[in-house]
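Supplementary Note 2. Why include the ligand at all?

Several targets in our set were suspected to adopt different conformations when bound, so apo predictions alone were not considered sufficient. For every target with a known small-molecule partner we therefore ran a joint prediction. The input for 3,4-dihydroxyphenylalanine is given below.
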Amino acid sequence: MKDFSEIKEQVKAKIEEVKDNASLSEFWQSYLGKQGVIQGLMKEMKNVPPEEKPSFGKAVNEVREWAQGLYAQKQSQVKELELKARYEREAIDVTMPAMKRDIGNLHPITLIKHQMIDVFAGMGFEVFEGPEIEDDDHNFTRLNVLKDHPSRDMQDTFYLTEELLLRTHTSPGQIRTMDTHKPPIKVLVPGKVFRSDSDATHSPMFSQMEGLVVDKGITLCDLQGMLDKFVQEIFGSGTKTRLRPSYFPFTEPSVEVDVSCFECGGKGCSLCKGTGWIEVLGGGVVNKKVLENCGIDSEVYSGLAFGIGIERITMLKYGISNMGVLFRNEQDFLEQFKA
Ligand code: DAH
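The joint prediction is reproduced in token form.
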């Protein structure tokens, strides 16, 4: 019996120390488990004189039940403690400002391309895209840029083979459209083009937007009307166009199109180099030979075409003087175009 009170003191002290599940199960093993101290008392039974066996057994049972009671109490305390700790660990302060996520934005060339498509889509144009690797036929010959014709010098070409090349302009999109569609035709062909050319205002890869309209009775006036609308949408409602005679093998007549300077309103400034006008694109009436190269009767139908440099429009619109920033993709530059 003396031993029991010692054991009880031990149990009391140990259960006090229990703070978590691990020490709780350690306690169980030390006192209540099969190898535990209390179970061990039962093994003493064989040394107890027969008349004392019943009272000994009863006393052991009482100690066991008492210890089990302490264990159960501790178990529910530990459970509560652990739950509390978990709530604290997982607490969310709903009044904290949310983490800011940086979202990207469209590249200025893409922005302008989308704006351009929007303007022309409003006039009923559809978008068509051709391949970046073209053949000589589509890029030059059928556009009336014949082999050995000096006009080939206008575009410094990356050849892949004798016949294949990286398209130097989006104009082969005209041929591909007319090969697959009957008039009336009204398409835009945006895309990347490639030329062996590199300085502050030229890049070996840049973007163009081709426009082609083929129908009965199309004239140069239609071209100017559409382009007026286009430049007003892009550069502001007061902007005017001016057509200057030019030469492209695939248009006759050919024009170079200037816009009135949106910086100075036409008075003359550094942007327009004092002239009041800025050149923005080339175009003209589709050369009859090009229509015929695509099996379209040039006595019945006529067309207009234009080609716009997307980088040029982007640079003018945003006041960019060196084309390189459009391709270097520096974050400080790109972030200025966030909506
Ligand atoms: N393809 C010409 C170039 O890259 C631009 C051009 C001029 C396109 C006149 C046209 C056009 O459709 O009619 O220089």
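The radius of gyration is 43 Å. Residues 2-90 form one domain. Comparable summaries for the other entries are listed in the accompanying table.
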